[in-house]
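Sorry to interrupt, but I need a hand with the structure work. It will help me judge whether the discrete encoding reads sensibly. Write everything out right here, beneath this request:
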Amino acid sequence: MPYASSYIGPIFLVRWREQYQISDGLPLEFEVKKYRARAHEPLTMVWMFAATMKGIADEARAPLARLIGATRQHCTAFHAVVEPVGFAQAVYRGILTTAFAASSGPPPITFHTSVEACLRVVAAAYDVEYEALMKTASFQQMLP
């Protein structure tokens, strides 16, 4: 799989390690729906794009928008961390912003400059200790 996923309470983490492919959408959508039913509350989605990840192919962008639309209906918050820097970071943010605009409904996407900054915001929203969240995310191999 080009991504790894994990969850900590209502926080659903997705770490994209390889280029997003059209075939990646259904397994992740199923996983989000399954966990949302089990969590009994809306999720906070955190997508992390690894610095080593290659771009998103043009033909995969519309399916990515469908995936975002299908998953965001199960969320109260959607965060994204784009690790590539410079031009690559701007490209990823543009692709994700366009995909969010093409999908419908709340919540909006919130971009963060680092995984640490993102998880600080998420920890504060759930009154969870940041250090404990980072330790769990590290143990589950979700950190860079």
